[in-house]
Amino acid sequence: MKLQEILFSQGFGTRRICSGLVQQGFVAVAGVVCTEPAAEFVADNLHFTVQDVAWQYHEKAYLMLYKPAGYECSQKPSTYPSIYTLLPAPIRQRGGGAAAGVQAVGRLDQDTTGLLLLSDDGKFIHRMSSPKHHVPKVYDVTAKHAVDDKQLQKLLAGVVLDDDPKPVRAAACAQTGELQLSLTLTEGKYHQVKRMIAAVGNRVDALHRSRIGGLALPADLRPGEWRWLTVQDMVAISTARPLTA
Ligand code: URA
């Protein structure tokens, strides 16, 4: 693949801009500056730098982000900054065109923290967000009032939310502290955790997503930080089965 095309596919701007970056000596491949935009390289796993910042070629982008509180999962946020501002420009621009860049796999509320996946692979986004695929998501809830066994039993048995007569139930639920519980869901309705907790007579004070499928938020990722998913992460995401109570 031509170096100019590699840069274009990875979100470094129009073909003209990418060609200019190469001609001006801003791009190095495996440590060697290349000033020929049409130079051919094997794109897969190619390591290169653009203005001394290291990149690796990814045909499709699969990332995790530790979503901090105070960010909206929208490209056009209404009140708070967008999570997309936490990503480097090339990742936001990958592919060019109207549907450029990565998209969040589902949304977390502005005040929710934790594991968020992003990708530019439409099939992956659909598979991960579709309730049909039952990908379990684990939420760590801090409640306003003491958690008790009755609340847990109701969450497991199923509660009715105002927009659907069909009860929604937790795939698993466990008390982890006086005010804390861990809730596993396999679907993602609007404000689902908050509405389920309200339906059992309590209230969410803080909400954190700690796991998607078999993938846990890594302990060394700080709020606001992102990283590429590894092959092992991808396997972990899709191999976990929903827990039963
Ligand atoms: N459920 C909620 O209520 N909020 C979130 O952000 C995620 C799940």
Q: What does the model show?
A:
Strand 11 and strand 12 form a beta hairpin. By secondary structure, this protein is α+β, with helices and mostly antiparallel strands. The chain is elongated and about 70 Å long. The chain folds into three domains: 54 residues, Structural Genomics Hypothetical 15.5 Kd Protein In mrcA-pckA Intergenic Region, Chain A; 88 residues, Alpha-Beta Plaits (2-Layer Sandwich), CATH 3.30.70; 79 residues, Alpha-L RNA-binding motif (Alpha-Beta Plaits, 2-Layer Sandwich), CATH 3.30.70.1560. The chain has seven helices and 15 strands. Bound molecules: uracil (URA). Uracil binds next to helix 6.
Which secondary-structure class do the elements indicate? alpha+beta
- Classify the helix fraction into a percent range: 10-25%
Low-confidence stretches: none
Shape: elongated
Instruction: Write the CATH architecture name of the largest domain.
Output: 2-Layer Sandwich
CATH fold descriptor of the largest domain: Alpha-Beta Plaits
Evaluate the radius of gyration.
Answer: 21 Å
How many angstroms separate the termini?
Answer: 50 Å
Strand % is 25-35%
